[in-house]
Every structure is written in C-alpha cells, then in structure tokens.
Design brief:
The chain has one domain. The radius of gyration is 11 Å and the shape is globular. It has 77 residues and is α+β, with helices and mostly antiparallel strands. A hairpin with a 6-residue loop joins strand 1 and strand 2. A four-stranded mixed β-sheet has the order 3-2-1-4.
C-alpha cells in the first residue's frame, strides 16, 4: 500500500493499526498496516516494493505521517 492509498484508507477508517517490525528482506524495519478485517498490508514505495527504514524512529515517523498516534513495534529476540 503506497502513501496516498494509506492516507485515504486511514482517514476512511479502513486501517486500524500500524505495526513496525524487522524486515524479512533487508536490514531494517518494515511498516505494516492492519485493516478492519485483520489483513496485514505492507507499506510500499511507488514501485510496489516494501519500504525499508534503517531506524525505528524513521519507521514510526512514517506511521505517524499516515495518521497513527500509537504504533506497535514487534521485535524478535
């Protein structure tokens, strides 16, 4: 889900949660949105690939820019 679609879906109430978790494909953090139906949609760039953030701060800032006040962080130990 790219930025514009995420903004629209968040304002419509279709996205209920933002989760930041370690990327499975690169060294960094991925942002995932959860829909009302429980589906998890990755935050993507204009090319359709997952956006990877090198710091947790940047990932949470992106979620805040979409309109989330609280962001869940999942980390594997």
């Amino acid at each position: 889900m790219d930025h514009d679609h995420a903004l629209t879906a968040r304002h419509a109430g279709d996205l209920v949660e933002a989760i930041v978790k370690p990327s499975a494909h690169a060294n960094g953090w991925s942002l995932v949105f959860v829909t009302r139906d429980g589906e998890q949609l990755p935050y993507t760039g204009h090319t359709g690939t997952d956006k990877i953030y090198h710091t947790l701060d940047h990932a949470t800032e992106a979620a805040q820019d979409i309109g989330f006040d609280r962001i869940r962080v999942e980390e594997v130990f």
